[in-house]
């Protein structure tokens, strides 16, 4: 898993209203009504919950990145490496992120999940992507400005679809809209296509947000299915596909996120070792100190997994040399 910094201002905006400066998509907002998982999360100390949220963000980004790395390795005829990236990506998403999300109370009621998504999409539409586009234009990164503007419009459409869905869910009348189709963007290995440090930082922030949105929406979809709302599940899944295959991928192209197979393995090894030796052990120590035993166990177990991932990636890299 990768440890990348998320801009402090994104996290601090969680409490702002959707009408002016809505809570960002990166925030794991509390459901508006009590829910068993959220009630359990409220028993956690604030630092433990913050650490779990950091883990969720990192695991989501690792899943999205490793998925791209796997595709690149396949195209370079490194089939075994491609398989390794894909299986590791699934572990990050379906095991690590899922367990962290359960502990953190990520999923609420269908209505609460929709409200959280509406706030996030509103923020991205009205504040984040518009600001990123303006900065990219100022810095001469026209391609990034164009992409940020396009994604801002998409997020506005997502917000509107979620609002319609919320009205249907809460009133019992009306229908949940169908999702828009995702346009899959190919991400070849390449250098960054932007020049300004500020644009590069904004792309990194945006990619983390899109990866997290994908993971959250897939969790929300699973809950919608369990509650018997198949139409809402389809909306979540379809929107998640746009966030990952279109938005994240488009940003990854401009950011030069994908390199050669060797470069991608190097990135993965560095990230996994950092998680295994520093980040997760530190989280485990903090959770143990305040008595959050379940979270501490999760952090320790995940650290061990990440160490195994690092070793597997290192073995794969050695075979390529």
Report on the structure:
It is a single chain. This protein has helices at residues 8-12, 18-21, 36-42, 46-75, 79-104, 110-138, 142-171, 197-226, 230-255, 261-289, 293-320. Mean pLDDT is 90; it is low at 2-34. The chain is mainly α and 321 residues long. It contains eleven helices and no strands. Helix 4 crosses helix 8 (197-226), helix 5 runs antiparallel to helix 11 (293-320) and helix 8 packs antiparallel against helix 9. Helix content is 76%, strand content 0%.
Which labels suit this protein?
single chain; 321 residues; mainly alpha; Ferritin; 2 domains; 76% helix; globular; disordered N terminus
Entry summary:
With 321 residues, this protein is mainly alpha-helical.
Which helices and strands appear, and what pairs or packs with what?
Elements: H1 8-12, H2 18-21, H3 36-42, H4 46-75, H5 79-104, H6 110-138, H7 142-171, H8 197-226, H9 230-255, H10 261-289, H11 293-320
Helix pairs in contact: 4-5, 4-8, 4-10, 5-11, 6-7, 6-8, 7-9, 8-9, 10-11
């Amino acid at each position: 898993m990768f440890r990348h910094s998320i801009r402090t201002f994104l996290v601090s905006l969680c409490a702002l209203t959707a009408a002016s400066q809505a809570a960002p998509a990166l925030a794991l907002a509390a459901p508006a009504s009590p829910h068993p998982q959220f009630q359990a999360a409220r028993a956690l100390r604030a630092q433990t919950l913050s650490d779990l949220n950091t883990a969720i963000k990192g695991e989501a980004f690792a899943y999205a990145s490793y998925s791209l790395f796997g595709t690149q390795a396949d195209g370079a005829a490194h089939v075994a490496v491609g398989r390794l990236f894909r299986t590791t990506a699934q572990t990050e998403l379906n095991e690590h992120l899922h367990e962290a999300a359960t502990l953190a109370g990520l999923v609420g009621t269908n209505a609460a999940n929709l409200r959280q998504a509406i706030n996030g999409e509103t923020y991205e539409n009205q504040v984040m992507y518009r600001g990123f586009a303006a900065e990219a234009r100022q810095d001469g990164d026209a391609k990034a400005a164009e992409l940020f503007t396009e994604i801002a419009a998409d997020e506005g459409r997502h917000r509107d679809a979620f609002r319609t869905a919320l009205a249907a869910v809460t009133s019992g009348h009306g229908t949940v809209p169908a999702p828009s189709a995702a346009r899959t963007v190919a991400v070849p290995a390449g250098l960054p296509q932007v020049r300004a440090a500020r644009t590069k930082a904004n792309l990194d922030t945006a990619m983390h947000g899109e990866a997290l949105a994908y993971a959250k929406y897939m969790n929300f979809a699973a809950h919608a299915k369990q509650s018997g709302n198949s139409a809402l599940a389809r909306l979540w899944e379809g929107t998640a596909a746009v966030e990952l295959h279109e938005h994240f991928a488009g940003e990854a192209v401009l950011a030069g996120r994908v390199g050669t197979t060797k470069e991608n393995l190097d990135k993965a090894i560095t990230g996994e070792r950092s998680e295994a030796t520093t980040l997760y052990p530190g989280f485990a120590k903090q959770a143990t100190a305040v008595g959050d035993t379940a979270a501490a166990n999760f952090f320790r177990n995940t650290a061990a997994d990440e160490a195994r991932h690092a070793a597997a990636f290192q073995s794969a890299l050695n075979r390529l040399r």
